[in-house]
């Protein structure tokens, strides 16, 4: 029972790390703002400016929280092995892609983060295919 709680806590910390890193990225916030403005325009509501510009002020704290939670998740992974390693790699990619500090290198962070995310997805897919070949259950 106690191990289940630790696994659940570790899983939630890892999820929060990924979500917070996404909120820390200005470009994603900008895209969400544009989407909100478009949806409101379809509904006949005109918005001038960016409705979520306040995220710009909290980008660095949110990214910092994501980085700290990722480190905590990694420490838990090293001690108990109760978190998926592929999920940690995925979250690392999201945190790298969301780095808000150096704006002139944002494209490079996106590329590196995207590559790390792609590697984690490929590892997950590879694991699923190898488990099916070895006689694992198929879920439809």
What is the alpha-carbon Rg in Å? 18 Å
Number of strands: 0
Q: Order of helices and strands, N to C?
A: HHHHHH
Major sheet characteristics: none
Global structural class: mainly alpha
- Overall, the morphology is globular
The domain count comes to 1
> Strand-residue fraction?
under 5%
Average of pLDDT: 78
**Gap from first CA to last CA:** 30 Å
Given as residue ranges, the uncertain stretches (5+ residues, pLDDT < 50) are none
* Share of helical residues: over 70%
* Tally of DSSP helical segments: 6
Structure write-up:
It is globular, with a radius of gyration of 18 Å. α1 (2-23) runs antiparallel to α4, α1 runs parallel beside α5 (85-97) and α5 runs antiparallel to α6. The longest helix has 28 residues, at 106-133. The chain is an all-alpha fold and 140 residues long. Helix content is 76%, strand content 0%. The two termini are 30 Å apart. The chain has six helices and no strands. It has one domain. The protein has helices at residues 2-23, 26-42, 54-57, 59-80, 85-97, 106-133. The mean pLDDT is 78.
Descriptive key words:
globular, mainly alpha, 140 residues, 76% helix, 6 helices
Q: Would you kindly provide a brief summary of this structure?
A:
The protein is mainly α and 140 residues long. Helix content is 76%, strand content 0%. It is built from six helices and no strands.
């Amino acid at each position: 029972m106690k191990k289940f709680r630790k696994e659940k806590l570790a899983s939630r910390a890892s999820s929060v790390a990924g979500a917070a890193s996404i909120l820390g990225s200005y470009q994603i916030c900008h895209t969400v703002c544009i989407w909100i403005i478009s949806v409101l325009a379809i509904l006949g509501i005109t918005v001038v400016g960016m409705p979520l510009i306040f995220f710009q002020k909290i980008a660095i704290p949110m990214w910092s929280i994501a980085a700290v939670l990722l480190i905590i998740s990694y420490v838990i992974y090293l001690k108990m092995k109760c978190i998926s390693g592929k999920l940690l790699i995925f979250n690392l990619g999201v945190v790298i892609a969301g780095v808000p500090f150096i704006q002139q290198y944002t494209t490079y962070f996106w590329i590196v983060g995207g590559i790390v995310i792609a590697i984690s997805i490929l590892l997950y897919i590879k694991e699923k295919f190898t488990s099916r070949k070895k006689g694992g259950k198929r879920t439809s």
